[in-house]
Structure formats: C-alpha cells, structure tokens
Amino acid sequence: MDGVCFVDDLFGPNQEYTKAICEKIIDSNINFVWGCNMRSDTCSEEELKLMYEAGCRWILFGIESGSRERQKVIDKNLNLDKTKEVVDFCREIGIFVTTTFIIGYPDETEEELKETIKYMQELNANTKFPNFIGVLPKSKLYEEMIKSGRLEVPQSFLQWEKLKMWDELGENYSRIPDKELSVVSACFSWWDLFTKYPNPDNGKESRVIFKRAILQTLDIFKRGTFYSTHLLIIAAKELIQIFYYAKMFPGIRKKYALYKNPKKSS
C-alpha cells in the first residue's frame, strides 16, 4: 500500500482536528500519500502546508454551484471568492484539486447554469465535474419535492432506479432542456479525459485519466467473462455518449461559452 483516500464527507471539521491528524501521520514516520474531501472556504494556507507535509497530494472540494443565490438555497453558503484562493494555493504547493458541481437543480434557469459554468471555467482546479442532481431519500430536497407533489414516493425498485444522479440524467426538474444539461456534463468529462496532469513525483505531464481508462479496459478485457464483456459494452456506450454530446452540438457550446480554454476562445 502506498496511498490512502479518506472518504469522510468532511475530513477536517476544524483546523485543530486536522492539525492533530497530520502531526500523528508525520510522527509515525510512515511514508504514504493520501487524499480527502474538505470544505474549500475553511482551509487556511498554514493548514494546507501541514497537510502537504503529512503526505496529502489530492483534495476534493464539493462546490455544488457557482451561483451565490443557489448557495443560499441549498444551505451550502460557500464563500466562492475564498474558494478560488484556496484552490490556487493548493495548486501552488502541489496538491491535486478535484472540484464537483451539481447541475439540473429544481427550477434552475439557463442564466444560473451560465453562472456556474463561468465560475468553473475561472477556477484553477485540476478537474471539474458537473454532476447531475440526485434526489436522495429523506433529504430536505426529497421531502420538499414529495410535499409539493413534484415527486411521488417510489413503490418499486424500477421506480427507485429512475432517481438517477452523478453521471446519469434522471428526471429533470430544472428549466433547462435535457440535451443542454448533457452537453455541459459531457464537455467537462471529455476535456478531463484528455487533459495532461503533472506527476507529483517528477513533474512530468501525462494524460493520467486517459491512461487509467485504457489500463482498466485492458484489465476487464483480460478477464474474458460474460460479465466483463458486458462491462466493456457499457463503458464503450458511455464514451460514445460523452463524445456525441461534447462534439455534436456547437450551438449549445456557444450558448454556454463551453470552451476548454475560455480566454483563448473569447
């Protein structure tokens, strides 16, 4: 084992806790790299430096929206300006930053989506994933949707399956067409797949995500079972779908200013 991913939703609830964890790792003299999930606007430079010293090499920040109004609606209340500063500092000291966003909120408008895309384009994160919203059972959103009559309580596994999320677009409660949401998601997925990222050990850049996808494909192919063949078909289908939505709708890309390098394209 040479790496650990701490999957706690909030690795550092406060700086004292984070400091104690990092100091324990350093004092243990066990050399390994690790990553975690954190809230972006509560990190200090001192805290991030200590995390790096303790072996932290990647952090996931859940931003959710680039709209200040939506931040209030979802009770996230993230300081978006502070987040940009934290992401910049992480990149500066050598921590790989993944940021996740949510698109397709109930009643989300095109203008709100444009705000989020603009923010994503300006953010200096290594990867940026706009995920489709999922209505999680017993969450505040779920209860509100049930109460308003926009969602019926699923009565079967097939009905539960329709509550898709992350990389699958399920029931769309926003004011944005399915196709446009799919194009936004596919563009960022396509760019991340072929973007070169620096190796933290030697600084050399390579298409890490693309190489990983190829290695996983070869590994599945070697198994030679019916199930592995099924997995390859699903993976091929997803890749074709990403390519289709990322490349076949230039009008939608223009509408939302979806460019890998917005400064060059503007």
Count of runs of 4 or more consecutive helical residues:
12
Helix content class: 40-55%
CATH fold node name of the largest domain: pyruvate-formate lyase- activating enzyme
**What's the SSE pattern?**
EHEHEHHEHEHHHEEHHHH
CATH architecture of the largest domain: Alpha-Beta Horseshoe
Distance between the termini: 45 Å
* Quaternary structure annotation: single chain
- Cα-atom radius of gyration: 20 Å
General form: globular
Q: Strand content of the residues, in percent?
A: 5-15%
Q: Count up the domains.
A: 2
CATH superfamily of the largest domain: tm_1862 like domain
Ranges where pLDDT stays below 50 over 5 or more residues in a row are none
| Major beta sheet summary | 5 strands, parallel
Topology, number of strands:
7
Within the largest sheet, what's the order of strands?
Answer: 1-2-3-4-5
Instruction: Give the rounded overall mean pLDDT.
Output: 88
Helix and strand content put the structural class at alpha/beta
Task: Return the CATH class of the largest domain.
Answer: Alpha Beta
